[in-house]
Design a protein that fits this description.
CATH architecture of the largest domain: 3-Layer(aba) Sandwich
Structural class: alpha/beta
Number of helices: 9
CATH topology of the largest domain: Rossmann fold
Low-confidence stretches: none
Largest sheet: 6 strands, parallel
Radius of gyration: 22 Å
Shape: elongated
Number of domains: 2
Strand content: 25-35%
Number of strands: 14
Order of helices and strands: EEHEHEHHEHEEEHHEHEEEEEH
């Protein structure tokens, strides 16, 4: 996959283009991407996913910036089965483009769209005035075919990034994972901490997430961690570690049966299931006992 970001100076080969925000990259988004790959293979075109960077809510004055389910580098990791992933610079100039100018100048000229695939509620252009009706009306003029995909539902509710964001904020990781179609993940470099976990007999790989990254409530979670693309079972604490007087929110992961030096390496932590809330213990012995119980829970979970 070719990853294009931070520039407007590019021209793609003839492509099947998917347009959207792709914050959560959920089951509904997968429908669009799978259709693009299918059409690209059938018609000997390239598949291309297009979104904006930063998210428009960080630029528009009347918008409250959203907590991002996935950051830019995480999206490029998850959207890896297409030929091109484009994160187009979003600024006030881009925001002022009329819907037709967006289609003609960016989608058709730069992205070289022969087929455009969108969700049925897709909106675009200045003040979001463009919709699938306009895209259909412009298709003859600009020589592309439009495919609008119906929204995907789960338990009779339409899947959306807003819904997934709510589930993650409430700590409903299992539900969020069902809607995403994959385990919610956090990408980051392992940084040196105070090594308190090692002193307790449970060393951890620590990640300091970006302030814009959406995280679930502070607590302990069953998890998996990928180190050098190898998956390991793990337990992850999201929070400040109050027993040890922590102040900064970090993601600390104890990897089962693992004892390698991975400082500075990029890892991916997937949260699978909520275990308990973060709490301040009265002593280090109580904390150590609680961690031991969490590890035993993990082993039983693996056994099941």
């Amino acid at each position: 996959m070719e990853y294009i970001r931070g520039t407007k100076e590019f021209t793609a080969p003839p492509s099947v283009v998917v347009l959207g925000n792709f914050d959560g990259i959920h089951i509904g988004h997968r429908e669009l991407i799978n259709k693009a790959n299918e059409m690209a293979k059938k018609l000997d075109l390239k598949s291309l996913v297009f979104t904006f960077l930063p998210h428009p809510s960080f630029v528009l004055a009347n918008k409250e910036p959203v907590d991002l389910i996935y950051l830019s580098n995480e999206k490029s990791m998850i959207i890896n089965e297409v030929d091109f992933f484009v994160e187009y610079p979003y600024n006030l100039e881009t925001a002022k483009m009329t819907p037709e100018d967006f289609v003609s100048e960016i989608v058709c000229k730069q992205l070289n769209a022969k087929i455009i695939i969108v969700g049925e509620d897709y909106r675009f252009g200045n003040k979001r005035k463009g919709d699938i009706n306009l895209l259909e009306n412009l298709s003859t003029k600009y020589g592309y075919k439009l495919i609008a995909i119906k929204k995907v539902s789960y338990n009779n509710n339409i899947i959306s990034s807003t819904w997934i964001r709510k589930e993650i904020k409430e700590g409903h990781i299992e539900q969020a994972n069902k809607l995403l179609g994959h385990n919610f993940s956090i990408l980051g470099k392992v940084v040196e901490g105070k090594k308190n976990g090692r002193k307790l007999g449970f060393p951890t790989a620590n990640i300091k997430p970006s302030k814009n990254k959406l995280l679930p409530p502070n607590g302990v979670y069953l998890s998996s961690i990928y180190v050098n693309n190898i998956k390991y079972n793990s337990i992850t604490n999201v929070g400040t570690n109050p027993t040890l007087n922590g102040e900064e929110k970090v993601v600390e992961t104890h990897i089962l049966d693992f004892n390698e030096d991975i400082y500075g390496q990029e890892v991916v932590v997937e949260l699978i299931k909520f275990i308990r809330n973060e709490k301040k213990f009265n002593s280090l012995d109580e904390l150590k006992e609680a961690i031991s119980e969490n590890v035993e829970y993990l082993k039983k979970y693996i056994g099941r």
